[in-house]
Task: inverse folding
């Protein structure tokens, strides 16, 4: 039996419960993992509440796609992984099929990466989702080059901070947008070249002027939008000629217009991106893993972990996530005590 987080209905953090369930043996193409740490992501809160891009298909439902631990057992047809290997799980599967909010979990072997030497479990559970998302959006898909500029909203999120680090490493200019003046210094410390606070009283025209000033009048080759909704039109004004407005999230929960018509149909590329474009394509994932591992080795990359909670505190961790006050990543750790 293994302690597993389940929920029986859609709702807030209070629907989450911890239960003992049978974990079983891994099937073909699967591994069983002893979980030591779990990355908490916005996708799980949206899945739990019924607002994710994929609906919950059955109850009780599970959560979680990012974790670190040790291989316990390997199913048939899984080369290169052995019991005892320290690994990380990257988001590459549906939460309707697998979930890692547990102290032991079965996951697809294709979603497992070796944990780099010297990487502890909390780091191993916090690094892959943000950095693979940033790498895939900015480099694999966006083609960002040295000397370009990238503008990103929700900049204090784990993905936003990873995008800042990636941009700095490849010689591009990261311009961070944040609604909270209290987060400005933290973003500058993490490497943002410019931080624009977009709180009450700040107009879209003022933001656009700040971005033009920061980018030498060119605008951003890529604007990374994690919010979507009606504000997307204002973000489109920040994109350089023939640049890309890339939507990587929908935190606003509001309908999203197509901005090109309202702006007079400029040379503007608009596309969505999810990290599954990278993690479900083996060659892209191989390149992403090499890029992120290199950054970890050099010290250029490190996940910013705001706070850790024990697995039994999962509801409290989700309340903290929903409050939007954190900077970086929230991580669950496994204490392996009895179900409370």
Result:
């Amino acid at each position: 039996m293994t302690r597993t987080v389940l929920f029986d209905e859609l709702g807030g953090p209070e629907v989450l419960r911890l239960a003992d369930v049978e974990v079983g043996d891994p099937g073909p193409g699967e591994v069983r993992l002893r979980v030591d740490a779990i990355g908490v992501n916005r996708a799980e809160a949206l899945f739990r509440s019924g607002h994710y891009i994929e609906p919950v298909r059955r109850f009780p439902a599970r959560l979680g796609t990012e974790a670190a631990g040790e291989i316990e057992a390997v199913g048939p047809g899984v080369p290169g992984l052995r019991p005892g290997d320290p690994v990380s799980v990257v988001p590459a599967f549906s939460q309707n099929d697998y979930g890692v909010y547990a102290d032991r979990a079965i996951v697809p072997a294709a979603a497992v990466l070796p944990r780099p030497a010297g990487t502890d479990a909390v780091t191993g559970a916090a690094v892959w989702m943000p950095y693979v998302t940033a790498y895939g959006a900015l480099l694999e898909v966006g083609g960002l080059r040295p000397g370009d500029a990238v503008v990103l909203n929700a900049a204090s999120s784990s993905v936003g901070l990873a995008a800042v680090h990636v941009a700095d490493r490849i010689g591009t200019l990261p311009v961070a947008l944040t609604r909270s003046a209290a987060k400005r210094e933290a973003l500058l410390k993490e490497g943002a070249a410019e931080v624009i606070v977009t709180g009450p009283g700040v107009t879209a025209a003022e933001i656009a002027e700040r971005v033009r000033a920061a980018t030498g009048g060119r605008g951003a080759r890529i604007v990374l939008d994690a919010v979507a909704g009606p504000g997307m039109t204002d973000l489109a004004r920040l994109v350089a000629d023939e640049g890309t407005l890339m939507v990587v999230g929908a935190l606003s929960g509001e309908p999203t217009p197509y901005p090109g018509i309202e702006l007079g149909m400029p040379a503007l590329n608009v596309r969505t991106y999810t990290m599954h474009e990278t993690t479900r394509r083996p060659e892209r994932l191989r390149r992403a893993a090499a890029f992120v591992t290199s950054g970890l080795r050099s010290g250029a990359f490190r996940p910013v972990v705001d706070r850790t909670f024990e697995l039994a505190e999962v509801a409290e961790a989700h309340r903290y996530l929903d409050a939007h006050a954190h900077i970086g990543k929230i991580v669950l750790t496994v204490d392996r005590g009895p179900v409370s």
User: Anything to note?
Assistant: Residues 211 and 265 are 21 Å apart (CA to CA). The mean pLDDT is 92. The domain at 129-276 is CATH 3.40.50.720 (Rossmann fold).
